[in-house]
Amino acid sequence: MPVRGAEQPESVRADRIPSTPRAKYDMPDTELLTAEDLLARFRALDDFLLSHQHLWRPKPFTQLQLDWEAQHPELSQWLRARSLAQADAAHNQPHLLAAPAPFPELAHAATTLCQLPALPERAAGALKPRLSVDIPGRKWQQIQAFGRCLQFNKQPQHWLDWCAGKGHLGRYLAHDQGELTCLERDASLVASGQRLSDKLGLPATHIELDVMHPLAAAHVTAGQTPVALHACGDLHSRLMQLASAAGCAQLAIAPCCYNRTRDEQYQPLSPAARASALQLSRDDLGLLQCETVTAGLRVRKQRDLSMARRLGFDLLQREIRGSEEYLNTPPLPSSWLQRPFSEYCLELARLKNLPLSGAHAWSAIEAAGNQRLTVVRNLELLRNLFRRPLEIWLILDRALYLDAQGYHVRLGRFCDPHLTPRNLLLLAERP
Fold it and tell me: Is residue 324 part of a domain?
């Protein structure tokens, strides 16, 4: 749907965004990125993120006023005047928003830097009956889209499904040819997956194993083709390291949840990323998880209520403590959202040992939290311009790592973002 601005009654189209001359962030038009292209793109993104980190690092959720607002008062006022509905409409496509400067220029640069081709697809063969049994519809679509993009010079003979769950991806890939090994730490998923594979008559072995355990290295061998669809953070990084060390000729990875890592600070993989001045915290990596494409209406309403209540409590705790610092609070069960706002705040105060009594203007505080949610969601639109650039910086770090390990790397989109916002796929193959 087109995004509507607070002061523009007509829908905003991409061609209404002011164009800027070709600049240092403009990329050459190309379908396939060579190793040199990958490095050039990484360096351009690195420069972009470093130059504008004062815009995307500060979090409106934890700060009442952001430093950049004094530098760009017109943009600040424009964003703060918008409604929550307008913020939600622009959430997944902030680059289309006709906001005051420097928003359009940043949007242009971000959009240009994030251009990646759709990976070519192979024709899908006939599927075994009941192959999609027990698979949610959206997940099944993601699996098929992922599988259609797996084109290697040599036909894989043995698939390794990493963090496999029940092994749905592996069975899809191995249903017509090849062996299958599935690694998964949840015993119940392993058992369910083995039953499904046996029913289909597939030569599959499901193994209960934490892939972060040292023993995982013994289960990655040169003759396998490892695949991982949305393995989180350390899990997919671990796969790349083990696969390259084992001599695997091929692998395919669609990363997800880069912030799910044991390290407080991001540990770069490639020589280019290690040489970068960009230092990322685990909190910085959480920017990628702010995108909501697939959540249903009920989930979104629950999320909004939770955020508004936390923001209301934040205003209250600043007053009680006499501090302008945000106070991290533990999550409460979703059932607490059904309780009165006063009880919600009193419980958080108890958990944080704050001297909070019941004598407060709870309705006014709750209303202030709701209003702050509106402001936060709109101010976040500027941060969101850097969400995809950061994601591509991270996946290029992985692409360049694999390149340094002797792989020919292809990077592109394997599906549309409405199916999953984490729609980038790395294909790597050694000559």
Answer: yes
